[in-house]
Amino acid sequence: MDFDQLFKQISPEELCDNFNIFTLVGKDFYAITAGKENHCNSMIGSGGGLGLLFKKPTTWCLLRQDRYTLEMIQKEQTYTLSYFPNEYKEQMLF
Prior knowledge:
It is a single chain. The protein is α+β, with helices and mostly antiparallel strands and 94 residues long. 33% of the residues lie in helices and 30% in strands. The chain has five helices and five strands; from the N terminus they run H-H-H-E-E-E-E-H-E-H. The protein has a three-stranded antiparallel beta sheet with strand order 2-1-5. The longest helix has 9 residues, at 68-76. The model has no long low-confidence stretch (mean pLDDT 80).
């Protein structure tokens, strides 16, 4: 499978229509990824938030200072949050 088959980008409005926000940020595991296509780093996230800041869709998550993913976010000034069905929880925690 290629990237487009595995991942689907959705707008914040679609997220709110299809998912329970409190479950996504409070109970589900997700991957935080930063970097570029040829050099990136991912980690498991839990907690955080989604909302509006100055009328723009916003996400936030807390990372320990020693995490390499944080270094990548600071360097690139961007990150993605990827949510997976619960059937992949064991693989994500590995």
